[in-house]
Amino acid sequence: MTVWDRLVGQGPVIEQLQRAVAGEMTHAWLITGPPGSGRSNAASAFAAALQCAQGGCGDCVECHQVAINAHPDVRLVSTELLSIGVDEVRELVRLGALAPAGGGMQIVIIEDSDRLTEQAANALLKAIEEPNERTAWLLCAPTVEDVLPTIRSRARHVVLSTPKVEEVTEFLVVHEGIAREVAAYAARASQGHIGRAKALAHDDEVKSRRREVVTIPMKLDSQGAAMIQAANLAAVAQEDAESLSSQINAKEKEQLDRSFGVMDRGRKPRGYAPALGELEKAQKARATRRQRDVVDRSLIDLMSVYRDVLTIQLGTDAALVNEELRADLTELGRRTTPEVNL
Hints:
3 domains, five-stranded parallel sheet, alpha/beta, Rossmann fold, globular
């Protein structure tokens, strides 16, 4: 299996990147596409292909190292915080200017280029304006508008599309070993979001939480009911964020204590309090982002319900996202009008 095989439904993009590997290379790339389309996967596959003597065979040491984020000349920047700061980017620029450890290129992948602060983006711009011939910057963002015009004008643009349901289904069956019926459900419910489809296919709790969200419209018979459901949705988002963060936070705190010798000496040395404050600040920002991500995902799921109801009301032949709820959707359509649902 080559490095390109995990890019679902992105044939034109694969061809474009393969041409670059073969000789049409430039120093800066902007990879855009809707959430879940595989921006990070495309950047990783591209990086592996640039380091691989066979253009991304998927089997060699270079490809394997990139896949597990262990290649000495490929740096992956991803953040769980709300933004990427200037200090982090300046360090990336410094590292990117170093000679490659191997015979290939220094490659820097920034997964969330849309989260660069203005200062960070300006620091990155300088590196792109004065490129090192053996350094490549791979920037990922939802749209070109999410990146400074001065940066996007200096980068080659790659546009990913949302994979079709059939393509996601086949990917889950072939590469994830999922039963076809489950894969088809996950592909529909995820609306082409690869990561979300994997989670729905593998995790019953994720499936259960999604069902709680998509059945909310059936319970809205008054303004009071809407307020209650909105409060419940916010509570679920907070609970989800806290559940994910608690174990990570505890592990990070333990590592900090160990690095300062707190666990061994039983006292807090100089410098510990500021470091702890920075850690807690980062953890709070991460929890906030996680909570917002959960709310965003829930709103997308809710929109799929009203989209399905409109599909039924207007009598189109489009497939339903929530096919398993067809009876409930039909009843909701009977009680409402297209204008209300819009």
